[in-house]
Fold this sequence. Notes:
Chain A has 289 residues and is of the alpha+beta class. Helix content of chain A is 41%, strand content 31%. Chain A has seven helices and twelve strands. In chain A, the strands form three sheets. Chain A has a six-stranded mixed β-sheet. In chain A, helix 5 crosses helix 6 (234-268). Chain B has one domain (2-291). Chain B has eleven helices and five strands. Chain B is globular. Strand 5 of chain A pairs antiparallel with strand 5 of chain B, so a sheet runs across the interface.
Amino acid sequence: MMLKKMLNVWKTICLTAVLLVAAPGLALADSPMNVQISPDIIQTSASFPGAQVKLTGQVPAGSQVFVKLLAQGGSVSLAEKGRQGIFWLNKRTVHVSGLPAFYMVFTSANIAGLPAGVQQEMGLYGNFSELLRSAVVTTNTGLSPAESARYAQALIDVNKQKGLYQERAADFDPAANGSFSYRFLLPKDLPAGQIQVLAWAVKDGRVVATSQNGLSVQRVGLGGYLSTMAQNQAALYGVMALLAAVLAGVGINFLFGGIEAATKSIFRRKLPVVAGREGEKKVAHQARA
Amino acid sequence: MDILFPIAGVHLNVLAVAGLGAVVGLLSGVFGVGGGFLLTPLLMMIGVPSIVAAASDSNQIVAASVSGAMAHSKLGNVDWKLGLTLVAGGWFGGLAGTQLVHRLMATGNAAFVIQIAYVVMLSVVGSYMFYESTRSMFKKNKNKSNTGGAAKLPLLARLPGQMYFRYAGMHASVYALVGLGFLTGVLAALMGVGGGFIMLPVLIYLVGIPTGIAVGTSLVTVLFTAAEVTLTQSMVNHTVDMLLALVLLAGSSVGAQIGVRIGRQLKAEQVRVVFSLIVLITMGTMVYGLLAAPHTLISMVGGGQ
């Protein structure tokens, strides 16, 4: 009994000691990090050329900053062509999910230099390798891990070419007091929806502060209206598309009919212009003659 | 000026898109075809996802056909009775063709079957049309009728259900015409086009009506087929980019009107020779696409995320 009590006291002492040692680190890791993105609402019209955005914040002095912007993406189908006989045919179609529609990383230090635990905590391994790990590739037939990675990499490459996936390592330096400011350009193909802005401050090989923020991308104007309508009111959209086509066709027809009639009348009657109703009668009479 | 086409999800130069529409509209007006079989591959070449290109094409074909059909109607080139008979078959053919495409997509062979169908159809139609029209031009037969129509196949005149088409001035089996409309509808759905490039030679060579009336009447058939496809694509696949279609039709409607006037200046044989060359060039491009190594082996299906 006595021994059991002593054991419990010993356990309590050990636990307290552990907490005392770990508490400052945990408290620091959980501490909020002041990061602001401006503007936090982006409106994209049909002629949207891209937008300049400024990220400002404050981290504990001496920390390095790691920022990730990402927008949820859906399933994307990829087709692979192969040579069969003399033709190039689609030999396989796969579906890739788990990849973001938009992904941007910028850091004040190289990701490769971070401890593995910190990389895992942030979900950042450098050179988009975290995306390769999160991608899920499916098809009707089975795929080997190497084949899955090849398809995921192909989609990552397509998005990199479009400017939708960007990674800029060690691209800026926080000030000595921990303040930082970073300007970057969002691409013109920016998908509509919510973009998460996640930031980490890393000091002495561990995450000391985190931040989570948001950026809203809204489609406005005719493009946004049509896009929403095509998805939500498809039948009405279809009828509208038909009506617009018919009206445009009829309008152009009348326009050309008018132009042709006017052209004919000008070339047929090279007659003196006589004003008034009597004049019109004279012109008509001369034209008949 | 680059703008984002919202359903296609790509930025394109407005003037380039309108210019593309104008060129295809010009051909549409001259030859009496919707132009989809040319515009679809051209749009894909400038970066529009294939399914959006095909669906939006149908939308602009409606406008080009309305404009062209009205112009031809004023010129007295439309046999409405014949056109509506063909449309009756074409609508059912379009529905059946859509189901056929769904089944082919399930087996993964849709793209290849569609491309091969294109190559076979275009090569047969283009070659025969080119042969027949060049022979007519060089033969200069003194007794040749100036209507420009080819000799009517005796089979159509002997089939049951004969109906007289007063405007075209010919008898034909109504069953055969509805069947031809059905076949055209199936092929139009398979190939994602209005079907004018199939209907026109069918009217000239199989039905045997004058080229001028064949052009006007085929436009009526194209108009209704394209309208059906536009509605279906909007409701089922959400792939009609109205903004893209509006820019295209701004160009194509103007082009079609100019084309109709150019067509009036040309002889029927000349129209058929040029048309057959365009058909053969398109066929050659498709064969090249099937044989040449693609730029990238893995590509996205249907565009944006």
